[in-house]
Amino acid sequence: MIKDFLKRYWWRYLIGSIFLIVVDVLMILVPRITGLVVDSLRVTPDDLSTVRVLLFGIVGVAFGLFFARFFWRVFIMGAARRFEYFSKEVLFDKLLGLPASYYDRTRVGDLMARFTNDVNAMRMAFGPAIVMLVDGIFLTGITIVAMGSFVNWNLTWIAIAPLPVLTFVSLFFGKMIHRRFRAVQESFSDLTDTAEESIAGIRVVKSYGIEPVRSRMMEDTSNNYVSKNMDLVKVWGMFFPLINSLAMMGTLLAIFFGGRMVILGNITLGEFITFVGYLGMLVWPTMAFGWVVNIIQRGRASYKRLKQIIEEKSDITTPNPVRITKLKGNIVFDNLSFTYPTGKEPALKNVSLRIESGSKVALVGTTGSGKSTIGKLLGRVYPVPEGKIFIDGIDINRLDPQLIRDNFAYVPQETFLFSATVRDNIAFAVNGVDHERVKRYAEIAAVHDDIMGFSKGYDTIVGERGVTLSGGQKQRIAIARALMKESPIVFLDDCLSAVDTETEAKILNSLQNSGQERTIIVISHRLKAVLDSDMIYVMHDGEVVESGKHDDLLKNNGLYKRMYDRQMIEEKLEGE
Predict the structure, then answer these.
(1) Looking at the domain assignment, is residue 316 inside a domain?
(2) Helix (H) or strand (E) holding 18
(3) What was the pLDDT predicted at 575?
(4) Beta pairing partners, 355
(5) For position 118, what pLDDT does the model report?
(6) According to a count of CB atoms within 10 Å of the terminal CB, is the N or C end of the chain lower?
């Protein structure tokens, strides 16, 4: 990431550094001119012409400093802001390309912390730290040369004697700052994650009345964050006073020995004032050196955290993809067994399915039997062993994930809507919003009448995650969104659980009779809604225990018949 950025913007740092060096050169002139003014007044107090020229020189230097400082800020600080944008863009693109297994083990709050605090620490390392580093090195060097050349080299060596000690002090404290700042960033991730979960789940928190519990949890996390920061502050609090003390020792030595030289006539008063001015200029590079160590160590710690995302490898690979653009929807599962990356027990055991193109197939069975897993594997959300899943006779591992997702519409159990209008949510997967198409698929999903009852119809903002809608409305809008893709394969993962059985059956019939040939795979716990399926697979404990049409399954007197009879009894009791 850093290499790519510097290849594009190295010239901005070069130009900014040149202006920064111009500033340092101009600053060197100020103490020299001041010393000349003092000596001129002592030698020829009645002749002010030389003094006027020198004063105009100071004014010229001031204007030069103004323009040079403006441009180094534009180039270097501007480049740092570009790095902030560049790094966030790289990270976001990387996160979009990572598989679902990564998000199974990664907290949202931790990712947000890396996007904010860690990127900001890197920006500081690419902005202020660069300025202080270039300024500190060049200003220190040119100031020492000026002190020796304009005043006295012996006095210069005495004054800068404490500076080498800074190197050892900085190396010692730099390692401590690096470790402790990384601990601060980790604790900030915990804090962000706790806040994000509490806010996202605020309705659950309130419904259970556990506000005090979440408050105490937030307090504990905040206290941990403060504690880690205090550990860092203690090191920082020792580091900077020590740096300043070493710098002041140089000033004390210069005043002691330089004062004696003035008395003995080895240097003039103006030269001594010039020397003290240069010493004052050395204080800033000394302090800047401490800041540079601090900021760079923070940036290094943050970069390590960002590299963990950048270097993350996807476990979904297609080494030799088949070049096709459209799928028909013939699907075969051949004795597939699968265990989630974070799981121990297999979610699927020796599953074999055959789904013909254009057919309607239902997956039913007990809770946790692996029905949803089939949909996730079909969309290549997780890696699949070779020779186990075929689409149109091609091993799924030879089909590009993007091709599959272009031809695969998936509606999950947990409906997610974006904080946008109803129209934008339905047309989410297509470019350009054609209102008639939106309306057509909303009618197929049996949600058009509900939408027209909203205050602004299709222009109604649904709120974050669709919070302003009922569960059934959210599910039906999600179905309309999936249908807008007009994909040849549609997978409905128990996404109509919040509507009644009649509405569910009506939606499924409308979908099948919409005029477009689709392979429709439905997961439903209500068997009455899938009675007309071309094939029904019954699953239990990760295995397919029965398969066939409705009437055939009833004759088997197996799990399907027991589930169906139970639901009929429950429906009869509810009717009474």
Answers:
(1) no
(2) helix 2-43
(3) 57
(4) 331
(5) 85
(6) C
| 287 token code pair | 């302090």
In a domain, 317, yes or no: no
Per-residue model confidence (pLDDT) at position 453:
85
CB–CB of 298/127 below 8 Å?
no
Compute the CA torsion angle 386, 391, 393, 396 (nearest 10 deg). -20
Sign of the torsion angle spanned by Cα atoms 232, 235, 238, 239: negative
Low-confidence ranges of the chain (pLDDT < 50): none
**Residue 318 placed within a domain:** no
Cα–Cα dist 297/178, whole Å: 5
Question: Phi/psi at 162 (nearest 5 deg)?
Answer: -75, -15
Within-domain flag for 214: yes
Under DSSP, is residue 189 helix (H, G, I), strand (E, B) or coil? helix
pLDDT of residue 251: 74
**Helix H segments across 453-527?**
471-484, 501-512
Placement of tokens 């040079």 in the chain? 68
pLDDT of residue 537: 92
| Residue 490 dihedral angles phi and psi, to the nearest 5° | -125, 130
Residue 109: φ, ψ to 5°: -60, -35
- The angle, 0 to 180 degrees and rounded to 10, between the axes of the packed helices 49-72 and 2-43 is 170
One-letter amino acid for residue 251 of the chain: T
Domains in the chain, number: 3
Six token digits for residue 41: 């007044």
Check: CB of residue 477 under 8 Å from CB of residue 438: no
Six-digit token string for 279? 């010493």
Dihedral sign, CA of 321, 327, 328, 332? positive
Per the structure block, which two tokens stand in for 383?
A: 């890696």
List of residues 6+ apart from 305 with CB closer than 8 A: 114, 118, 182, 185
Neighbouring CB atoms inside 10 A of 233's CB total: 13
Is there a single domain that holds both residue 203 and residue 239?
Answer: yes
H or E segment and range at residue 123? helix 119-126
At residue 21, the pLDDT reads: 86
User: Which pair of tokens denotes residue 285?
Assistant: 């590079």
Helices (H), 371-490: 371-378, 401-406, 422-426, 435-444, 448-452, 471-484
Domain that holds residue 399: 324-407+488-576
Angle in degrees, 0-180, between the axes of helices 269-310 and 119-126, rounded to the nearest 10 = 140
Provide, for the chain, the percentages of residues in helix, strand and coil under a 3-state DSSP scheme, each rounded to the nearest 5.
65, 10, 25
C-alpha torsion sign, points 417, 420, 422, 426: negative
Is residue 491 within 8 A of residue 410, CB to CB? The reply is yes
Report helix, strand or coil for 365: strand
Q: Which residues of 73-95 are buried (b: 16+ CB within 10 A; e: fewer)?
A: eebbbebbebbbebbeebbeebb
User: What are the beta bridge partners of residue 390?
Assistant: 332, 395
The set of residues, in sequence order, having a beta carbon less than 8 Å from that of 66 and lying 6+ positions away, is none
Residue 542 and residue 366 in contact, taking contact as beta carbons nearer than 8 Å: no
Nearest residue to 389 (alpha-carbon basis) of 349, 335, 341, 347: 335
